[in-house]
Amino acid sequence: MTQWHAVTRVRDLEGRKRAAVTVEGTTLALFWIKGKVYALADTCIHEQRQLSKGAILFGKIVCPGHQWKFDPETGEAEGQDGRCAPTYPVQVTEDGTVLVSLEQVEAVG
Ligand code: FES
C-alpha cells in the first residue's frame, strides 16, 4: 500500500514554483508547472546539483549545473540518450495539501 507524506501546500508552491523537501532522508524537488505539482529526485543525475535550484523553461526543468532539461512528468533528460531523473507520485488533496510517495515511478524508455 502506498504511503503518502504531506510535504507542503499548493499555495506555498505557486509563488516560487519550486521547493526542496526531505521525506525520510530523501530530498525531493517539487515543481509547480502549468497548474500541476511534480516531484523528482533533487539530486541531478548528471553531476549532483540540486534540481530544486533550477529554472522552469517552456514546461521543462532546467538544471542549474549544466542546463540539462528534464521532462517533469517522466524525468527524461532531453538529448541524453533516455537518461531519466527519478520521479515520484504526487497527490493534491481538496484542501491543497501536497502529498508525495517515495515509491519511485518506473522510468519510461
Ligand atoms: S549537474 Fe545537472 S546538468 Fe550537470
Describe this structure in words.
By secondary structure, this protein is mainly β. The protein has a single domain, classed as Rieske Iron-sulfur Protein (3-layer Sandwich), CATH 2.102.10.10. It is built from one helix and ten strands; from the N terminus they run E-H-E-E-E-E-E-E-E-E-E. Strand 9 and strand 10 form a beta hairpin. The longest helix has 7 residues, at 10-16.
Give a concise summary:
The chain has one helix at 10-16; strands at residues 4-9, 18-23, 26-33, 36-41, 55-57, 60-62, 69-70, 87-88, 90-92, 97-101.
Task: Supply database-style keywords.
globular, three-stranded antiparallel beta sheet, mainly beta, iron-sulfur, Rieske (2Fe-2S) protein, Rieske Iron-sulfur Protein, monooxygenase activity, 2 iron, 2 sulfur cluster binding, four-stranded antiparallel beta sheet
